[in-house]
């Protein structure tokens, strides 16, 4: 549990992750799905069956990044500082989206290149600390620094999905500049939100 001495840091997992990164990511991802199952399209059973190499492959890429929030605290049993990952978000770049045939909502088609924020999650015990915002801001920094190989690309459109009725998340993203997109058939369980980063210098 967080206390007055808890400290937080937000940083990206390196594109060549170490074993400790992979193990911590797996544990956090499984915890997230088990805690908030309705916010994820995958299932706990499916994710728990993945091999070590499959978890490694999720992180080992320069075309996407996973940002984590880490809590540092002193436990009552030990004098040394303990560290635990308590939040995460993954930013998927345009090359991977294109590879998997991603089609953005019709209302943003033709708006430059797209990036997607997925798997945004913070441990309930550490919510209300601004970690979601800090992770999104770190993701925006990664996008700004990303060198899109396609020449002539100007505008970068950022996309994310949020569950209908998740008002805290919608409020956070709206305050950061994302706007809700109109549902295309009115039946979607998840809503799209988007934001544009503007022109990239050539």
From TrEMBL:
Residues 45-198 form the N-acetyltransferase domain. It holds the Pfam family Acetyltransf_1. PROSITE patterns: GNAT. Gene3D superfamilies: 3.40.630.30. One of its GO terms (molecular function) is acyltransferase activity, transferring groups other than amino-acyl groups. This is N-acetyltransferase domain-containing protein. It comes from Leucocoprinus birnbaumii.
């Amino acid at each position: 549990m967080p206390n007055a001495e808890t400290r937080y840091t937000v940083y990206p997992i390196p594109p060549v992750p170490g074993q400790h990164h992979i193990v911590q990511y797996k544990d956090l991802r499984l915890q997230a799905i088990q805690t908030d199952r309705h916010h994820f399209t995958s299932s706990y059973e499916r994710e728990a069956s993945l091999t070590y190499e499959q978890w490694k492959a999720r992180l080992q890429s320069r075309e996407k990044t996973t940002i984590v929030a880490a809590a540092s605290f002193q436990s009552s049993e030990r004098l040394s500082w303990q560290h635990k990952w308590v939040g995460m978000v993954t930013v998927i770049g345009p090359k991977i989206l294109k590879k998997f045939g991603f089609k953005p909502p019709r209302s943003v088609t033709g708006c430059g290149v797209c990036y997607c924020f997925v798997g945004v999650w913070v441990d309930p015990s550490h919510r209300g600390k601004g970690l979601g915002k800090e992770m999104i801001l770190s993701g925006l920094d990664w996008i700004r620094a990303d060198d899109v190989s396609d020449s002539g690309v100007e505008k970068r459109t950022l996309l994310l999905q949020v569950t209908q009725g998740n008002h805290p998340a919608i409020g956070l993203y709206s305050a950061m500049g994302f706007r809700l997109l109109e549902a295309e058939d009115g039946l979607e369980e998840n809503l799209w939100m988007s934001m544009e980063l503007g022109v990239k210098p050539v």
